Amino acid sequence: MSDIAYGLKALTGAIKIAKNLKDFQKQLNDSTFQLQISELYDNLAETKMGMAELKDLLRTKDDEIRSLKESLSIKQNVVYNDTYYQVKNDKGNLEGQYCKVCYDDKKKLMRLTKVIEDPGWWKCQRCLETFFEEGC
Predict the structure, then answer these.
(1) Cβ–Cβ under 8 Å, residues 14 and 47
(2) Distances, alpha carbon 59 to alpha carbons 26, 46, 52, 53, 73, in Å
(3) What pLDDT does 39 receive?
(4) What is the rounded CA–CA span in Å between residue 116 and residue 88?
(5) Cβ burial 5-31 (10 Å sphere, 16+ → b, else e)
(6) How many CB atoms lie within 10 A of CB 115?
(7) Mean of the pLDDT values across residues 119-131?
(8) What is the tens place of the pLDDT at every residue in 78-111?
(9) Alpha-carbon distance 86 to 5, whole Å?
């Protein structure tokens, strides 16, 4: 990004020079010189706008890449255990109980809550599915 910022800074300086030349050319009455300076100014302004758009596009792409990396990291650490999904933490331990339906359908990790009245049962508060875990 610093190259783009440097490019924008240099371009801004070039536009200022073009403005100064344009002011200088007013003192001269050479129409060819005036036309060339005007075209230079227009081209530099268009380039600056293009650079700003490129900077925004790169920022958007960086955000998208960061989001995809996070999604990939989560996907690589999600484990299904025949009842619900769990996520491996940094130490490799499995954590949480996540809804199979929500993850399979929309790739959303929705925590399950224990059904207190029925030991071994888990419920998703989003889709309202219930899951039974053997051995509880």
Answers:
(1) no
(2) 40, 20, 11, 10, 21
(3) 81
(4) 26
(5) eeebeebeebbeebeebeeebeeeeee
(6) 14
(7) 91
(8) 999 888 999 998 898 999 899 999 999 988 999 9
(9) 43
Q: Which phi-psi region, left, alpha or beta, contains residue 23 (left: φ > 0; alpha: ψ -120 to 50)? A: alpha
Q: Which residues pair with 114 in a beta bridge?
A: 122
Give me 96's structure tokens: 């949480």
Q: Do 130 and 115 touch, CB atoms closer than 8 A?
A: yes
User: How far is residue 21's CA from residue 133's CA, in Å, rounded to a whole number?
Assistant: 79
> Which of 36, 46, 39 minimizes the C-alpha distance to 11?
46
Q: Which residues contact 68 (CB under 8 A, 6 or more apart)?
A: none
Identify the pLDDT of residue 65: 96
- In angstroms, what CA-CA distances link 70 with 17, 75, 76, 108? 45, 9, 10, 13
3-state secondary structure of 118: coil
Residue 100 has a CB neighbour count (10 Å cut-off) of: 21
pLDDT digits (tens, 9 = 90+) for 59-77: 999 999 999 998 888 888 9
